[in-house]
Amino acid sequence: MKILAICPRIPECGKKGDQVLSFHRLSFLAVNHKIKLVCFGDPEIDSKAKSHLESLGISVKLIPFNKAIAFYNALLAVLKPESPIQCALFESTRFQSAFKALLYEFKPDTVYAVTIRALGNISLYKGPLVVDLVDSMALNFSRRMDMTYGLKHFLLNIEYERVKKYEKKVVQNANRSFVVSSIDQKIIGGDRVSALPLGVDGRHFFKSNDRQLEPVVIFTGNMNYKPNVDAVLWFHQNCWSKLKLIIPNIRFIVAGGNPTSAIRALQADDSVKVMGRVPSIAVLINSARVSIAPMQSGSGMQFKILEAMACAVPVVSTSLGLGDIGAKVGHDILLADTPDFFVKAVKSLLQSEELQKKIGNAGWQYVNEHHTWDALNAVFEKSITTL
After folding, report:
1. Domains of the chain (ranges, CATH numbers)
2. Cβ–Cβ < 8 Å for 282, 200
3. How many CB atoms lie within 10 A of CB 266?
4. Quick one: 338 exposed, middle or buried, by C-beta within 10 A (0-12, 13-18, 19+)?
5. How far apart are CA 291 and CA 313, in angstroms?
6. What Å distances lie between residue 59 and 35, 36, 52, 64, 108, CA to CA?
7. What is the pLDDT of residues 50-83, one digit of tens each?
8. Which of 164, 197, 204, 220 lies 20 to 30 Å (CA to CA) from residue 93?
9. d(Cα 52, Cα 358) in Å, to the nearest integer?
């Protein structure tokens, strides 16, 4: 089968969620299918990721992302109610030309799109189409609106209405669409969208036998992503001082690329360390005794939870963070939605090595039974090859 893939960012491990998902999808499919990819990227910064994909047999056409053109497109989109700003930012004549050329030369059996962002570049395409929405952007905006007021709330609501309509249109027009959570599936609606959860790469995220005993709490994720920023700030503002009174030598590590100024400012507290991007997030997770996911907004499924579980590090999450991950609360993971209960859950794990191991090992078993990439991608492959 010949597959022409389009992505708003280059597929790559260790980056944002859509990049990780698309990397594992395409690398799995490349074993049995011929794949060509068009995506935005920087020829210098993304050269290593491009070479990695090409070593797997995936042909890659990188299109430079022009911020000036993106800004101009966003301004134009203000006057087009049917066009989400999120998609207008990625409209590109160079991308469109590359896509058309490959359609003519490659003659793909299907087009595979990752997220809705780059779909404006293939609006005239009428052939078989598979879309990995990853999550519902409309749900993401809806939850962010709940945390804002005034002008910001008003602007988010405009984009929310546009994205909601656009997502429904996408799943109606595509042959197959996928999201990573049944919660997002229900929000979008329709019988052509399926929920297929995220996986974890067991080659990189695995249980360590050399666990340190220091009371370290960790949060991982892209740190210029608003839901991650909100989660860390909520935890620090509502829970951290209480935990330090109970466990004076406790430390909090925040790891993930592009931390905002608000996140970097947390280092004024000597017990907090903001790491930014690190060579191996798995090594850092394995240095902690507890991983947290105190999500207050966002959508989809949390890689941070699955990755910590794969390392057998116990997780404390809010209900929103857990979403529809099927882990058993109290057995595979601990759940807390208020500051006092969150403090209690983290404290219980830090003060009991037995409980740490019990929850950590149960989480590890759950992930290995339900979230391996090969098993999930085999389901995906079967779905798209029977269009």
Report:
1. 2-199+372-384 (3.40.50.2000), 216-370 (3.40.50.2000)
2. no
3. 20
4. exposed
5. 7
6. 6, 5, 11, 16, 13
7. 999 999 999 999 999 999 999 999 999 888 888 8
8. 164
9. 38
